[in-house]
């Protein structure tokens, strides 16, 4: 029996539980807001309820946020499930990254 792809509701619940647990372990609780992006990704706005973790600035990328985003994407995008990328932003939804130009093949 094949497993059906995760839906947006399942993905949001999984991401919410994972990030809430991680932030609780870091002793920096946060609330999460979700937004579907035009490219099919899931945007997550992280709002810390107290002090920001060290090295994290609202609206800016940081090593902690990038690492958590990588970890969350590895946890939720497992084969054979449909891939849907998760993008994290602190203090608001992350800005859409510009599309990378496709290099042309050498002649």
Poorly predicted runs of 5 or more residues: none
Question: Mean of residue pLDDT?
Answer: 84
| Strands in their spatial order, largest beta sheet | 1-2-3
Could you tell me the strand content as a percent range? 15-25%
Q: Which word captures the global form?
A: globular
- Label the structural class: alpha+beta
Number of helices: 2
How many angstroms does the end-to-end distance come to?
A: 47 Å
Query: Largest sheet, if any?
Result: 3 strands, mixed
Order of helices and strands: HEEHE
Could you tell me the number of beta strands? 3
Radius of gyration, whole Å: 16 Å
Q: Indicate the percent of residues in helices.
A: 25-40%
Describe this protein's structure.
- The chain has 107 residues and is of the alpha+beta class.
- 30% of the residues lie in helices and 18% in strands.
- A 3-stranded mixed beta sheet has the order 1-2-3, covered by helices on one side.
- The longest helix is centred in the N-terminal third of the chain and has 18 residues.
- It is globular and about 55 Å long.
- The chain starts with 7 loop residues before the first helix and ends in a 17-residue tail after the last strand.
- The mean pLDDT is 84.
Features:
107 residues; alpha+beta; 3-stranded mixed beta sheet; 2 helices; 30% helix; 18% strand; globular
In short:
With 107 residues, the protein is of the alpha+beta class. It has helices spanning 8-25, 63-76; strands at 30-36, 42-48, 86-90. A three-stranded mixed beta sheet has the order 1-2-3, with helices on one face.
List the helices and strands and how they pair.
Blueprint: H1 8-25, E1 30-36, E2 42-48, H2 63-76, E3 86-90
Parallel strand pairs: 2-3
Antiparallel strand pairs: 1-2
